[in-house]
Each structure stands twice: as structure tokens, then as C-alpha cells.
Amino acid sequence: MISVILTHYNKGLLLNRTIDSLQPEDENLHEIIVVDDYSTDPEWPTNYQYLLVNYPKVKIIQNTDNKGPAVRLNQGAFAATGDYLFFMDSDDILAPNRLNMFLHEMQKQQADLCYAEKVKIHDLNEIRKHTTGTWESSTTPLSYVLENNIMQMCVMCTRELFLKSKGCNENIFIQDESLALNLAKYSQKIISSNLHSVFVLLDENETKAIRGENRLSRHLAQQHHDMFFTIDDFIRDYLDLNEQDKKLLTKKALSTYWKSIRHTPQKKFSDFLMYLAAQINPIQTWNKHHQKLTIYFNQLNPVRKINQRA
Fold first, then answer.
1. Interatomic CA distance for residues 77 and 5, integer angstroms
2. Within a domain: 307
3. pTM of the predicted model as reported, rounded to 2 decimal places
4. Origin, by domain of life (predicted)?
């Protein structure tokens, strides 16, 4: 019934820990699809075979080139056969029984989209402290996602919704923002819980020795570039956005520009004035400075650019 999609690139045995946290023996878990983005880890071929032998529900999609998490997440989701799809990062940890909880609540509330909290911890024992939470729902999912700044990878949706939305924007390297926006645009009802469900373990030794630089969260330039163009593409694709949603989107894009430039030698006082103007009238500010912003993010380095934008 539930297909879990994990995109994988050089995560080592952290991937195995993630799979274990999904409780793969659960009867409602139909399959775990691991999409490998051409890992270069010399230990990966051995672990690949280990996973296939020891986890009957694991299906691994191997690739011969590196395309990034947005493309690979879509690849896994389009291959999934479950009625519900759950997405999370392949080095995080899911708290016990969360998949069944999400499934039960989605069916109970007749929702096609579900989000729960993703948080950082320093000790695995902290997971046991998080057992209760409250649920909210909305029949205007896009507005809800924008107002609550939802973009974390702790999301379940119906397979039907994913296919309708077409998932991630494959012109962007990092998937988070585009997945949330596209799913919300086509969703009929979203539910969200403040219950901490997916955990990022910030163990000092693990972070330095195992994850190293293979963490997209470290690459702020990539985050800023992909955030801006995700919003830019979304506004171009959906001309029917209501004014409030467009205000929230343009304000976020303009704030992303300020975050990207404020600690660089390129920063000018006019950039700060633009940021202030965006707080008052984001759409007008966006329309006035759109070309300048596009040029800036096109030239931003070092980032992985799928397409050069006009």
C-alpha cells in the first residue's frame, strides 16, 4: 500500500539505518525504492547486494550518470506501485509507526497530502520523547504550504496526486521546494502534524567522518540558486495564482536574493532597499527587478546548474 522513495548518493551505511527505521517488515509497507544517483563510494556495490539479499521489499534503481535528487526522486516515484508514496532523505531516521499513523490519518480525513515535522537531534534517544502531536487540515493546500513555509522531506501523498502534479521540477538540482509546491498546487486537502517524525542526527563524529561534504544543506549557494528558480518557474507555469499566494512566493524569492548576496562583496545599498521594498510590495518589486535577479542567479557559482535561464 505504501511505497517509500529514497534518493541515494554515497550515503554509506546511513542508508541501511534509514531503511531499518522504516520498519520494513510492516505489512502496510509495500516497497522501498532506492534510486542510486551513480554513487562513487567503493563500498556501494557490496552494500547494494547486501540490501537486496536482506531486505525483500527493497528495490534499487541503478543509474549510470549523476542527475541530482530532483530527477532521481521523480524516477523512483514514477516507478512506484503503492497507493501512497512517502519521501524522505536516505540518511535520516523515521520515528517508529509513523507510516501507519500518516496512512490512518490521511484515510480518516480523506486527504491526499500529508506533512509532519523534520527536526535535528544530537542523540538517538531523543526520538522516544516525541509521541504526541496535533493535526491541522486545509482545503487550500498551496496557501497552507506557503504560509507555513513547508518544504521539508517528510511527506506522504497519494500516488494519484503525485502523477497529477508530475512531482519535482527536473530543471532544478535540489527537489525540496518544487516537490512541496507542485504537490500542493494539485492537492485537494492537506493535513499536517507538529509531531516530530523524521530526525536528522547531528552526531559530531558521524557528521564529520561519514557525511563529510556530501550534504546539500552545506551548500548555501546551491540552495539559494534552486530556491529562486523553483519559484520563478512556478510563477511562470501557473498564471492563475491568486494574489496572496503570488505575494508570498515573490517575497520569498526576493528574500532568497538578499540572503545570497548580503555577505558578499557584490552587495550594494540598493540591494538592501530592494529587500525592504519586497516586505511592503513584493509583486511590484519582483516585476521591477526580475531581470536583475535572473542574471545574478544565472551567474552564481559554484552551483550545479541543470539549465541556464533566460
1. 6
2. no
3. 0.93
4. Bacteria
